[in-house]
């Protein structure tokens, strides 16, 4: 493990994940942790994971970003004492505005809701999602709503300040970089001891567009969409077959005939009303 990003969500975590990828690091952001390692993370959540468990979890991973990394950065740093720590910072007012915008964008996204509702992986990971959101970001309505409900503004701001203070107080100073993504490549690459790439510094999730970006580029989201489509297809086939079997019975035929007759009567009444 080369670097642990301890900065809170909405301080440029998606940008940092993209920057680490450009630098050639194998990066686990929120989705990778959520999709591939949720069971292992549950052990970290309840305090039963050993340092050996954590090192085994992230074998071959170079960098960690976003939640739940930022919440459990101390446990991760204890397991990887050689890793460097970056605290990404941001003006508190713009951070809070961006956080609320992200919640609203996510709650309004029909595609995100569909993924959560029909993907078996999302349903199986409910305890993971609720824990992560509840620790820092607010509340999670659960299946089938999946709406995010942030804390009161004063609580949200206080948690943000406390998080930053905790990192500054507890992280080893010789391994810590306090960094704003607006600073670009130079301080980041100097801290990590790598060459500055011949590419522009990335800027991801600008304006809370990360859902659209993930749908286009994320292999994890593509897997969830595929699994969700398969689940929806199987459900449709099962319902259709059950309906067919019911219709083949005498009671099912009577029930189907009754529906058709009443539907015809309803159509006739509408027509009569339109003529009058």
Automatic annotation (TrEMBL):
It comes from the Eukaryota. Pfam families: Sulfotransfer_4. This is Uncharacterized protein LOC100178565. It comes from Phallusia mammillata.
């Amino acid at each position: 493990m080369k670097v642990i990003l301890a900065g809170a969500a909405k301080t440029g975590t998606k940008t940092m994940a993209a920057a680490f990828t450009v630098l050639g690091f194998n990066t686990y952001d929120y989705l990778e942790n959520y999709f591939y390692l949720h069971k292992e993370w549950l052990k970290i959540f309840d305090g039963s994971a050993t340092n050996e468990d954590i090192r085994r979890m992230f074998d071959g991973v170079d960098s960690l970003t976003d939640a739940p990394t930022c919440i459990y950065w101390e446990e991760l740093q204890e397991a990887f004492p050689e890793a460097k720590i970056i605290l990404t910072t941001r003006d508190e007012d713009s951070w809070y505005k961006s956080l609320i915008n992200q919640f609203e964008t996510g709650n309004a996204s029909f595609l995100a809701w569909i993924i959560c509702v029909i993907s078996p992986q999302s349903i199986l990971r409910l305890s993971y999602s609720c824990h992560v959101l509840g620790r820092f970001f607010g509340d999670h309505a659960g299946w089938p709503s999946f709406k995010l409900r942030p804390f009161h503004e004063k609580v949200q701001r206080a948690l943000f300040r406390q998080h930053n203070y905790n990192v500054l107080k507890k992280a080893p100073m010789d391994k810590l970089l306090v960094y704003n993504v607006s600073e670009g490549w130079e301080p980041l690459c100097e801290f990590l001891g790598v060459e500055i790439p011949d590419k522009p510094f990335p800027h991801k999730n600008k304006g809370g567009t990360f859902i659209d970006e993930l749908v286009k580029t994320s292999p994890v989201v593509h897997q969830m969409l595929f699994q969700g489509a398969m689940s929806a297809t199987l459900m449709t086939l099962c319902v259709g077959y059950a309906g067919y079997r019911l219709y083949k019975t005498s009671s099912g035929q009577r029930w189907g005939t009754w529906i058709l007759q009443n539907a015809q009567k309803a159509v006739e009444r509408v027509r009569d009303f339109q003529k009058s």
